[in-house]
Amino acid sequence: MPVEKRESFLAGAHVGVLGVVDPRGERAPLLVPVWYSYQPGGEVTVQTARDSVKARLILDAGRFSLCAQTESTPYRYVSVEGPVTAVDDPVGKAEREAMAHRYLAPDTAAAYLAANSHQLTDDILIHMRPARWRTADFALFAAEFST
């Protein structure tokens, strides 16, 4: 994908799959679905509990990857990997609200934030600067077979 298209895709509201190395014994990398945010040209941010395995592994590794994809044809994906650049601890109210409203309808987001207000105070916001990109857009490929 061209730079503008891949950045626009990543900025869309997709559930991402976060990957981070897991050095605990003979384990594969940790892969977990996450909500994330991204603005073209900026950093990826992920909110998680400060005491979670995910947070500990990310902070120990100093980097992580994230893959966002479409769930229907034509398939597209953007995968980014890069270093952690900052950690906001605790997550600010505006950031918590923005993340909830990115993924949920307004009424649902408000209810989610109210129901999880205590839990959300235990979260941190991890920033990552995309250093490597991998992308695919199968729309053109699919078009060849639909004519």
TrEMBL record:
Keywords assigned by UniProt? Answer: Oxidoreductase
| Stretches of the chain forming a coiled coil according to its record | none
Keyword presence, Glycosyltransferase: no
How is this protein named in the record? Pyridoxamine 5'-phosphate oxidase family protein
Domain of life of the organism in this record?
Bacteria
Task: Kindly indicate whether the keyword Oxidoreductase belongs to this entry.
Answer: yes
